[in-house]
Design goal:
Length: about 525
């Protein structure tokens, strides 16, 4: 790659290049080792949960009167198991199978976010551009205050544009024409919040993102997302138009009313399709979620998708927080859930898992969910053909079934070679203090923060008290430049913790050596209590 500004390149693209620097992608990767799983048999052990997961989904369908469902389990980005139950069409008693296509409603929003991020990578827009640059109809909006910022693409991606929550209304707008949507925007959109200060779910906002895709590319949204996202991922069964689904594959939508299933005719694709119009099969959805999961862990392997791994990880981070919730179930278990919205994806943190990525979808006739744990490498997907099929509890129990195998463990951070080398040097220093060795490993602040003679006296006193010490304990690595370990001694143990400085070479900026009560101190504490 040569670093040059092409004739006709947009101002946004020029600014992006200037910000990124011309050397990006040309330099060799740094001293960074990707996080990895410790258990080589992990994937095999996780598969032991599949029969229990199948039972959970079948039981849910029977209990909730869902005519037909399909579900899948992903491990390390691969759809390792798919199941189906019930019928895709009640009158014909036609069974659901792996090729059955369901509408996934608001899960479409992540496809729209991917399309925007691809355009950004091409230098055709910036996330902090005012949306009215690309959708002129927004230029006449009456903002709620004189100090309100103009709505940006980033606001729209994270539900922070200030529009009111519009699920009941938005569900019925899929077939709106382009002219009708333009009329809506030109007539004005009311604000429930000032842009940029609060989360509120807006289908209208994602429809506007679809319009941005169209105006930037000169292509209808469905054509752009098909050519730029679906085809590169091999999603041949996925479409925004139910009429395009081959005969014998479409799951008809139903509602349960008056003791029977009644048809919910699907709305045709229109100007609001970017917020919830996608239809897909369990096979295709598995490919898609596997692609999103492939962003983890960060690594130097070649890129293999239509959007970079760094942009995928950007989607899966909180950009607009939501209020935290504490709930108690019937058994008395207290659960904390906090998080927010990324770009087209919801992000949560629970007592069990620090990073959960998910999105549900619900429309008349359909309900779906995709959920995965990036650091654990597992995901669950599910689709049903009952109005607003509610998958949340069943997906949670499916993840609990995976955890019950004992194999659901997070990737472990790996030390850089600099951290490993410093562990050895610091261990030698603790065992037998040497001023020259101490000087060679210390960052410039270390002895300013705590003089060297005081450190020497404190550490040598501990070793004299505990006897000869050996570097035999586990290395608890927090990240590439921070870790702690246990040194077993004749009459006890020491806990040593270091953090390296942001210098080349990295030297020790923080050093703590303390007497350890027991190895139990290395066990992670629960993130929140389970019971009072």
């Amino acid at each position: 790659m040569t670093c040059r500004h092409q004739i006709g390149m947009s101002l946004t693209a020029v600014l992006m290049l200037a910000t990124a620097g011309c050397s990006r992608g040309e330099s060799a990767p740094g001293d960074f080792v990707p996080a990895s799983f410790a258990d080589p048999d992990r994937a095999v052990r996780l598969r032991a949960a599949l029969p229990a997961i199948d039972s959970l989904f079948r039981d849910f369908a029977e209990r909730s009167r869902v005519p037909g469902i399909a579900w899948g389990v992903l491990i390390d980005g691969e759809l390792v198991h798919a199941g189906s139950h019930g019928v895709r069409e009640v009158a014909a008693n036609a069974p659901v199978d792996r090729a059955t296509v369901f509408r996934i409603a608001s899960m479409t929003k992540s496809f729209t976010a991917l399309s925007i991020l691809r355009l950004r990578e091409e230098g055709r827009l910036s996330l902090d551009d005012p949306a009215e640059y690309y959708v002129p109809e927004l230029g006449g909006l009456a903002y709620p205050t004189t100090d309100a910022p103009r709505i940006t693409i980033r606001h729209l991606l994270s539900h922070a544009e200030g529009f009111p929550e519009d699920n009941p209304w938005g569900d019925r707008q899929l077939d709106a024409t382009t002219a009708r949507m333009s009329e809506m925007m030109s007539s004005g959109i009311p604000f429930s919040n000032v842009p940029g200060v609060a989360y509120e779910y807006s289908n209208f906002g994602f429809a506007i993102l679809g319009r941005i895709v169209e105006n930037v590319t000169g292509m209808p949204y469905h054509e752009y997302v098909t050519a730029s996202i679906l085809r590169p991922l091999g999603m041949s069964a996925t479409t925004l138009d139910a009429a395009e689904v081959p005969g014998g594959h479409l799951a008809h939508g139903y509602r349960w009313e008056d003791g029977q299933w009644k048809d919910e005719p699907p709305l045709p694709h229109g100007a609001f399709g970017a917020m919830g119009g996608m239809l897909t099969s369990i096979e295709d959805l598995g490919r898609y979620v596997g692609f999103l999961m492939s962003a983890w862990p960060p690594r130097s392997a070649p890129e293999a998708g239509p959007v970079s791994r760094s942009s995928l990880r950007e989607m899966q981070q909180i950009w607009r927080a939501r209020p935290s919730r504490v709930t108690r179930d019937s058994g008395g278990t207290v659960e904390l859930s906090s998080g927010g919205y990324g770009f087209g994806l919801g992000i949560t943190q629970t007592c069990e898992f620090g990073h959960v990525v998910a999105h549900s979808g619900g429309l008349p006739g359909y309900g779906s969910q995709m959920r995965w744990l990036p650091e654990y490498g597992v995901g669950i997907i599910a689709m049903g053909n009952l109005t607003y099929t509610s998958w949340g509890g069943t997906v949670t129990r499916a993840i609990e079934a995976l955890a019950a195998t004992g194999a659901l463990q997070a990737r472990q951070a790996q030390p850089s070679s600099a951290l490993s080398a410093m562990r050895e040097s610091v261990s030698r220093l603790v065992t037998s203090w040497d001023d020259s060795l101490a000087d060679s490993i210390a960052a410039m602040n270390l002895y300013l923060d705590d003089p060297g003679d005081r450190r020497r006296e404190r550490i040598t006193s501990l070793v004299a008290q505990l006897g000869a010490c050996r570097n035999e304990g586990p290395f608890d690595v927090e990240n590439a430049l921070r870790g702690r370990w246990m040194m077993r001694c004749d009459r006890g143990a020491l806990e040593v913790a270091i953090t390296l400085a942001p210098t080349i070479p990295p030297r020790v900026q923080y050093l703590r050596v303390t007497q350890a009560d027991s190895v139990v101190r290395f066990q992670p504490a629960p993130s929140c209590p389970s019971r009072e």
